[in-house]
Specification:
This protein has 518 residues and is of the alpha/beta class. It contains 16 helices and 22 strands.
């Protein structure tokens, strides 16, 4: 009689060790034994000493295409000054006469030097430049790009966006949130085969970290056929739950339905209530500590969004609203209060993505309306020092409230927001249980730490439960699990690694090097 393994049992007893027999990509028998994992499949045999089996990690908020682009293109992530950002592109090959890069972050520069179009004009006087900030909510461009876009002293700020300016009123080359599109919409697109390669690269990169399933956010509907094509060709090793971009694609809601074909599952719509903290686009109830009299941006009218959300719910879509600032979270909850009975009837999930700054009153509303908190723990340890610069004390104490969510009975799901941060779920689990920023040795607001069991639940169980997905690892199921050299019983050591991944019945061995490296 085959032994049945259940993911739920990992939190009431030891993680699984023993022998797993695979036949035609499916688990045939699972025999518990102490001290090792042995996997048998045909003539193949894999043994892992002192390792344990878990279901694969789920990244509940990420951008697959963006990860593939980051791997393939020049990144500004490690640049330590504005000039270094410019120099990094001096030898780069333009794309249809544009130079494009992503990843700059002024918070990581050696000193906060001024940065504007003048620096880019010095290095690139004749070619348009478009540098997107690491969070995707601010663009740094040169005069040539502004000229092509027709942005000048008389150009008004678009709704939900801001054109930063010198005192004279002249644009200085920094565009926030919806103002980015004034330039971005003019940039030549990649070829279709390039987009296909980016998505494929991003998917295989995820496997290195034990991610076997993702919630892919803000997907352009035009790319759906690429996902389906990759899946049909057997080149999509992940389960991909897609949230379509619905804010700037007016026909998305009317023209698409929820649909699952093999590894591609269209389940939701993605909207944006505000911007990001790093670019001061997050909508706050109080002024920014480092920019008095400024409270950030609301990117869409509440009543317009209510109508869009209602249409989406009526068609069976889960709804995900990006909200970082406390004001943005409040408005998102206002919207969900308006529609939550309709959501219950249609059995759809209401989510807030990031949910970074949430007041005590709004914690209660998360619970009351059954709203999921989709958080990215690595943001906390990456951005803590920046948050202290940006936020007044009243809001700082309401930031990254993981334990508060759980104590209120609010379901928490975890992701990375890659390519903004590393895809590695182990870093996210570390952040959850320690809250020690990268530039510190002390926990930051430690009362909001959560246990390793709660962290694993947010990465493994809850993301699957909310879409009624079977979590069990058991005989007759497709082999879909990871092998880890840690049973996560108490802590996460520096040596913890994902050593093997089974996904869609195919095995990937990461003990020596990535199977994707030549």
């Amino acid at each position: 009689m085959p032994t049945v393994l259940s993911a739920f049992s990992f939190f009431t007893m030891e993680a699984f060790q023993g022998n797993i027999y695979i036949e035609n990509g499916k688990i045939k028998v699972a025999e518990p034994a102490k001290g090792y994992i042995q996997i048998f499949e045909g003539n193949s045999f894999h043994k892992f000493e002192n390792c344990f089996i878990f279901p694969g990690f789920v990244d509940s908020h990420c951008h697959l295409l963006g990860l593939g682009e980051k791997i393939s293109e020049i990144s500004l992530e490690n640049c330590e000054s504005p000039e270094e950002c410019a120099i990094a592109l001096t030898e780069a090959k333009p794309r249809n006469n544009w130079l494009i890069a992503r990843g700059w972050n002024q918070e990581k520069w050696n000193k906060l030097e001024s940065y504007d179009k003048k620096l880019l004009d010095f290095y690139f006087p004749d070619i348009p430049i478009f540098f997107i900030r690491i969070d995707g909510h601010c663009a740094w461009v040169n005069s040539k790009a502004l000229e092509i876009a027709g942005i000048n002293n008389l150009t008004p700020d678009p709704e939900g966006g801001k054109i930063l300016r010198y005192k004279s009123g002249e644009p200085n080359g920094l565009l926030i949130d919806n103002a980015i599109n004034l330039v971005a919409n003019l940039i030549p697109k990649y070829a279709r085969n390039e987009y296909k390669e980016f998505i494929k690269k991003g998917a295989y990169e995820c496997l290195k970290y034990g991610i076997t399933e993702i919630h892919d956010m803000d997907v352009n509907p035009d790319f759906l056929n690429i996902y389906y094509e990759l899946d049909k060709e057997g080149l999509l090793p992940l389960k991909i739950n897609i949230f379509l971009s619905a804010q700037n694609y007016p026909l998305t809601i009317e023209n698409f339905n929820t649909q699952k074909i093999n590894n591609v599952n269209i389940i939701g719509l993605k909207f944006f209530m505000d911007g990001a903290l790093g670019s001061r686009g997050a909508a706050l109830s109080l002024a920014y500590k480092d920019q008095p009299n400024y409270k950030g941006l609301i990117l869409i009218n509440k009543f317009k969004l209510i109508e869009k959300v209602k249409k989406g719910i009526d068609r069976g879509f889960d709804i995900a609203i990006h909200a970082i600032g406390d004001k943005a979270n409040k408005i998102a909850l206002d919207i969900y209060e308006n529609v939550y009975q309709m959501a219950n009837i249609n059995k759809v999930n209401l989510r807030i993505e990031h949910a970074q700054i949430v007041s005590e009153t709004d914690l209660e509303r998360f619970s009351k309306f059954g709203v999921l908190a989709s958080v990215q723990p690595i943001h906390c340890i990456s951005d803590a020092s920046m948050a202290e610069k940006r936020l007044p004390p009243t809001l700082l104490k309401d930031s990254y409230r993981w334990k508060s969510f759980i104590d209120k009975g609010i379901k928490v799901i975890a992701g990375s927001d890659f390519p903004v941060e590393s895809p590695d779920p182990l870093l996210g689990i570390y952040a959850f249980i320690n809250r020690i920023p990268f530039d510190s040795q002390k926990p930051w607001f430690p009362k909001e730490k959560i246990s390793i069991e709660e962290a694993l639940k947010a990465y493994i169980i809850t993301p699957r439960q909310i879409i009624s997905q079977d979590i069990a690892i058991e005989p007759l199921k497709i082999a879909d699990f990871i092998v880890v050299n840690n049973n996560f019983s108490k802590e996460l050591s520096d040596e913890t690694r994902v050593l093997g991944v089974y996904t869609n019945g195919i095995f990937y061995d990461f003990r020596e090097k990535s199977p994707f490296e030549k």
